[in-house]
């Protein structure tokens, strides 16, 4: 059965009665063989420990009491739904239909969740970084905070809330890679810093021109929203038609904020006509800085892992 299942080294089965007691020798043998017979519960436990000592991530499946020790020690214990209660109690995962063929879909779902959590975390942590830096800058310069709560509602909805909902549900088969926190911070801190610098520059210039406070805040909102959309595009790469549709819908929502007077009044938006070109230039420079940072981080392997195309 093992050769028919395609197991490597299935033509060289090993009798567990002849297995070495030394963990190092046992680990080397386990890497060279794949089929073992007459394995005792203590030997199963020793196999798991030996493989882990050699840097392997070990999954263990079982349905009987004799599998409990190994299931408990494994990195992930998988019990069959028809197995003994003790086996199901120590396992992290129970296959209710007792079909091992279900496991690939379980792994795929786990990969989708972990990969998309990282992608969405980049959006939220980036926003936390620039919001914090802007609060500090406003406090140091004794200027009013660049946003009203309704301004932040626009940014949170269009650039973070709605996109993160769809991105979290998108298919993604990228394998898990250690270093989640490090990768998120390596992206979010520089990206948030770029957004904060560009936003405060536009806000301070509008203030220096003597524009009304509502126009100063509109300039800040405009720059922040444009750059937040740039971050969304970078995190959605490669752009499949679904992601292009998502970005297009968000961009349409952004554009529709300004033509309708009632919407502008509700969100307290007033374009700074005397400084609009400067505001857009600052946003373009910020977008170029984000793109440059993205290219450099990917080139040095420090940015978010590529999203698997679906």
What are the salient characteristics of this protein?
three-stranded parallel β-sheet, 5% strand, 310 residues, two-stranded parallel ribbon
What does this 3D model show about the protein?
This protein has helices at 23-32, 41-53, 68-73, 85-90, 103-141, 149-169, 180-208, 213-236, 241-255, 261-266, 276-299; strands at 14-15, 36-37, 59-62, 76-80, 93-95. It is built from 11 helices and 5 strands. Strands 3-4-5 form a 3-stranded parallel β-sheet. The longest helix has 39 residues, at 103-141. The radius of gyration is 27 Å and the shape is elongated. It has 310 residues and is mainly alpha-helical.
N→C terminal distance: 35 Å
Fraction in beta strands: 5-15%
> Overall 3D geometry?
elongated
The helicity comes to 55-70%
Task: Please state how the strands of the largest beta sheet are arranged side by side.
Answer: 3-4-5
How many helical stretches? 11
Low-confidence stretches: none
How would the blueprint of this fold be written?
Blueprint lengths: L13 E2 L7 H10 L3 E2 L3 H13 L5 E4 L5 H6 L2 E5 L4 H6 L2 E3 L7 H39 L7 H21 L10 H29 L4 H24 L4 H15 L5 H6 L9 H24 L11
Parallel strand pairs: 1-2, 3-4, 4-5
């Amino acid at each position: 059965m093992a050769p028919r299942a395609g197991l490597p080294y299935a033509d060289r089965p090993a009798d567990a009665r002849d297995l070495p007691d030394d963990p190092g020798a046992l680990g080397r043998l386990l890497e060279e063989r794949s089929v073992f017979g007459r394995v005792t519960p203590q030997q199963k436990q020793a196999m798991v420990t030996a493989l882990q000592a050699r840097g392997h991530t070990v999954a263990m499946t079982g349905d009987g009491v004799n599998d409990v020790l190994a299931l408990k020690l494994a990195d992930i214990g998988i019990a069959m739904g028809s197995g003994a209660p003790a086996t199901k109690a120590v396992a992290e995962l129970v296959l209710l239909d007792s079909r091992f063929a279900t496991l690939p879909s379980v792994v795929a779902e786990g990969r989708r969740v972990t990969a998309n959590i990282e992608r969405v975390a980049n959006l939220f942590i980036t926003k936390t970084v620039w919001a914090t830096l802007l609060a500090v800058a406003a406090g140091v310069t004794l200027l009013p905070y660049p946003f009203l709560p309704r301004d932040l509602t626009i940014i949170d909805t269009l650039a973070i809330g709605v996109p993160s909902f769809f991105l979290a549900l998108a298919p993604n088969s990228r394998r898990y890679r250690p270093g989640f926190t490090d990768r998120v911070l390596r992206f979010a801190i520089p990206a948030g810093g770029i957004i904060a610098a560009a936003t405060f520059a536009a806000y301070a210039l509008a203030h220096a021109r003597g524009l009304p406070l509502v126009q100063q805040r509109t300039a800040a909102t405009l720059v922040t929203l444009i750059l937040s959309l740039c971050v969304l595009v970078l995190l959605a790469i490669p752009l499949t038609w679904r992601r292009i549709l998502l970005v297009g819908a968000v961009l349409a929502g952004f554009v529709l904020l300004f033509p309708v007077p009632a919407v502008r009044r509700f969100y307290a938006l007033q374009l700074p006509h005397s400084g609009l070109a400067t505001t857009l230039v600052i946003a373009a420079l910020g977008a170029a800085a984000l793109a440059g940072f993205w290219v450099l981080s990917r080139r040095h392997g420090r940015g978010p892992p590529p999203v698997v195309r679906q």
